[in-house]
Design a protein that fits this description.
The chain is of the alpha+beta class and 477 residues long. The chain has 2 domains: 190 residues, Up-down Bundle (A middle domain of Talin 1), CATH 1.20.1420; 154 residues, Histidine kinase-like ATPase, C-terminal domain (Heat Shock Protein 90). Helix content is 69%, strand content 9%.
């Protein structure tokens, strides 16, 4: 299923950001509103509780003062105490009225109205009684009844305050639970949206990274198509244009190398044959100096021929794949034929060749195996000093067949080892052993080894170069 992308990378980023952040913003706003309402309810409940408590204490206190003023007035018949009674009664009625206004429950308001009625009856009794014996006055019982009603009322108010506090705690707990459930749903949703956007952004970028790596490896055959936002698709089209240009340049380079190599082989063959005729004395006897010059011509023509052959092999490998014909080969015969082509140099440098064939039969493609051994032995012969030693060995390391070539030359620097298999690398040290020609020898060997699905490595040695080729057996190809 093809994903429908917006026209630009920035637009996709903004859409993804919006989808990821909007649920969290909504949850934050919802939680803020809920806690704001809870805060208002808490403030109202606290204010009401404070006012109710203050009015209740005022009611109880004024009732006590009313009773004392009334007793004093009835006993002493002093109108100053009657005035105190009226003042405290007015404060009592004010506190009672405030409680009636603050009471949310009908039952509680009825209790307050009963208190008001009882107090009104008590007031009439106090104003119209002439009994001097206080113990015989019914006013005492009325005050006791009124005190009991006020105490019950205060108890009821305290219970209402406790219930309101418990309701606040319950509301806060429910709001917290609701916010937690919202977070439990919205946070994974936001993460899911962010993951989806990251996938939509990452897939075309990963594809782009892959095609750039392929271009860097020289793989220009597959068309490049980037599925993503409009600007990334446009970038993909430009990368495909670059691929086509690189492919065209590669084809031009291959045609040029093939053409120039073939053009050079014809006159080079004539030069080599002419130098051999001169060296053999066909044109007449040569002086010592002339013989030396002819020998130089012959050696360098052979060297140049080897470089051109390597160049042709390299361009052939790049242009098409060699068809492998793996078969059982006698390694002793192949190595002997390769050594025979270098016999003159080996004899002149008095090199000692040590062959150790613990594995007599090698499963490989004959043509490519000869090219591989020729390049490795040629390098070893070239850079082994006078009277040095070259060791050529084969052995089994299941499931691998190992071919090793080790010389006693000056060896390689770490910088050369890291770049040794790069095409046309010429090295930077004085002992440029394996790269003192076209720079294609080990590149060709590496490519041919990889055609066998094998590997090649340079083992670290104190002196000389030690090359190890690993080839799988025929049943693994």
């Amino acid at each position: 299923m093809r994903i429908q992308y917006p026209n630009s990378f920035l637009k996709l980023l903004l859409i993804g950001f919006a989808f990821a952040i909007l649920p969290l913003i909504m949850a934050f706003i919802n939680a803020n509103l809920a806690f704001n309402q809870l805060s208002k309810n808490s403030q109202n409940t606290i204010d009401k509780a404070v006012k109710t408590t203050r009015a209740s204490h005022m009611l109880q206190e004024q009732l006590h003062l009313m009773e004392r003023s009334a007793r004093q007035f009835l006993v002493l018949n002093d109108f100053e105490f009657l005035e105190n009674y009226h003042n405290t009664r007015a404060a009592f009625l004010t506190a009672l009225q405030e409680l009636i206004i603050l009471s949310p429950e009908a039952q509680q308001r009825n209790q307050l109205l009963e208190v008001k009625k009882t107090e009104a009856k008590l007031n009439l009794v106090i104003l119209h009684t002439n009994i001097s014996n206080l113990e015989q006055m019914p006013v005492l019982n009325d005050f006791q009844q009124l005190t009991q009603q006020v105490n019950q009322l205060i108890l009821r108010n305290n219970q209402s305050i406790d219930n309101a506090s418990a309701h606040l705690v319950t509301s806060a707990s429910k709001a917290q639970q609701r916010f937690f459930l919202q977070s439990l749903i919205l946070v994974p949703f936001a993460l899911l949206v962010a993951g989806a956007i990251a996938f939509m952004l990452g897939r075309p970028i990963q594809r782009m990274d892959t095609v750039i790596k392929d271009l860097g490896k020289g793989e220009y055959q597959n068309a490049i198509s980037i599925d993503g936002p409009g600007d990334l698709r446009l970038l993909g089209q430009r990368l495909d244009w670059l691929r086509q240009e690189l492919l065209h340049l590669k084809e031009q380079k291959q045609r040029f190398l093939q053409h120039i190599s073939h053009e050079l082989k014809t006159p080079l063959t004539a030069i080599r044959e002419a130098s051999e005729l001169l060296t053999d004395g066909i044109g007449g006897t040569l002086s010592a100096q002339q013989h030396e010059i002819a020998h130089i011509l012959k050696d360098n023509s052979l060297r140049l021929q080897k470089m051109i052959e390597n160049l042709l092999t390299f361009t052939k490998m790049e242009s098409d794949k060699h068809v492998m014909q793996v078969q059982a080969l006698n390694i002793n015969e192949i190595v002997s034929s390769v050594l025979a082509s270098h016999a003159l140099t080996i004899r002149n440098k008095q090199l000692h060749i040590d062959t150790r064939f613990w594995l007599g039969t090698i499963y490989a493609d004959a043509e490519t195996l000869i090219v591989m051994l020729d390049n490795l032995i040629s390098n070893a012969v070239k850079f082994t000093p006078q009277a040095g030693q070259i060791v050529i060995s084969t052995r089994q390391d299941k499931p691998w067949q190992l071919i090793e070539v080790q010389d006693s030359g000056p060896g390689l620097s770490k910088e050369d080892i890291n770049k040794l298999f790069d095409p046309f690398y010429q090295g930077k040290t004085l002992h440029q052993g394996l790269v003192n020609s076209s720079g294609l020898g080990l590149t060709i060997v590496k490519n041919l080894v990889e055609l066998h699905q094998g590997s090649i490595e340079l083992k670290p040695e104190d002196k000389g170069a030690h090359v190890v080729i690993r080839l799988p057996r025929t049943d693994m190809l």
